[in-house]
Amino acid sequence: MFADLGHFSVRDLQISFSTITLPSLLIVYCGQAAYLTKHPEHVGDTFYKSIPDPLYWPTFVVAVAASIIASQAMISGAFSIISQSLTLGCFPRVKVVHTSTEYEGQVYIPEINYMLMIACVAVTIGFRTTENIGHAYGIAIVTVMVITTCMVTLIMLVIWKTNILWIALFCVFFGTIETIYLSSVLYKFFEGGYLPLVFSLILMTIMGIWHYVHQKKYEFEINNKVSKEYIKQLGEDPRINRAPGIGLLYSELVQGIPPIFSHFISSIPSIHSVLVFVSIKKLPISKVTPEERFLFRHVEPREYRMFRCVVRYIIKDFMGTPVEFEQQLVEKLKEFIRHEYFIAEGEAVAVENPPQSSNILINQEKDKGSSRRVVFVEETLNQLNQSCRSSASIQSFNEAKSNNSLSGIVSAAPPILVAEEEIQFVQKVKDEGIIYLLGEAEVIAKSDSSYTKRMIVDYGYNFLRRNFRQGEKVMMIPQTRLLRVGMTFEI
């Protein structure tokens, strides 16, 4: 319910609850109470018995429509909760379809929809009567009220920092009323009230197992990151070749190189001409600008052409097709290379011997912001190209490579020309093809682990991993350009 309310603004909720919901509920409940004072024998079906005969069928239609709307709110709320759990790493991978580009949180999850359908059919067959289902509904609603009071009390204490007297008054007043209501419906536990608790237990078990193993796996990757010395030793290994194209190696790590990389090298002694370690992160914020979506860094040594890329999305963002994702990533990589050389080094080279109009451009750049800087750099690049085209050249990575080993770029050319060559090289290898590198990690418990841990990791987690979506399906990786290497993690 609350996940569904999150689709609307605070003002909308305040107006609708204050002017429509609350007055309507008060009028209905007062009317039913007045009716029961005269007809106490109708307590089992007060709602329909209290309706005047001319308004019975219109009210019946409205009641059915309201139940449909309430079921849709429950379904969309379940989708939102699962989607947010995925962002926090607390639920197995499922397909999330964003149905709206304007409103945040409007999602559809096919797997969860089918599970809800099966659960509804099973509950209907098992309970048979609406009375037993009503018992389950009553316990669920009152429990939600108690949990809400506890959470609001915590928010008042930690976030709002309200006076402790007001907090105590709020907690005692509402907590007492809701606890009395809860005690009055607990006697229906064995008559159907256990249903929401069983569903909650199943869901919490799935989330707990997945989050526990996911966290342990992440800690394993952090503790077993590939060292910088290992990367440098690759340049001295004559068995390592540079394959054409761009390799995208997916990893959860934002810093450091995952251990699956060394496993790739040991299994396939080859590295792509450009290698990018991609980490996709979902952020709990309202907006990520296109300029800040792809964050690049060099992996030293720079001449090996290895990069780290953190791709940042918000919950409602859609990655797009693989072609769109690849195009965006390559373009941002070019901008990163251009920024690294043009801004950090290109201006310094140009300022040492500025052209006649450079002072004007520099002043304009100071006055009008960073957009002028690009114009200045491009004009400087053209002048340097004319002066250095005949006297300087840049040796590409593959030309500098000897004996099939990794080596550095040896060039005495100006930095701006180096950047231009690097950008052209990236475009060239992009045209040769992009390959996705994905580790097929199997997680098992250590031999000395407890029986409970082995049950959770070896059976519970691996069952969920095999029966939910795999990583390549979630990221829509083309099977024809996917390279997977298996690895076993012991936690």
TrEMBL record:
Residues 244-491 form the K+ potassium transporter C-terminal domain. Keywords: Ion transport, Membrane, Potassium, Potassium transport, Transmembrane, Transmembrane helix, Transport. This is Potassium transporter. It comes from the Eukaryota. Its main location: membrane. It is a multi-pass membrane protein. Residues 1-229 form the K+ potassium transporter integral membrane domain. It comes from Gossypium barbadense (Sea Island cotton). Belongs to the HAK/KUP transporter (TC 2.A.72.3) family. The keyword GTP-binding does not apply.
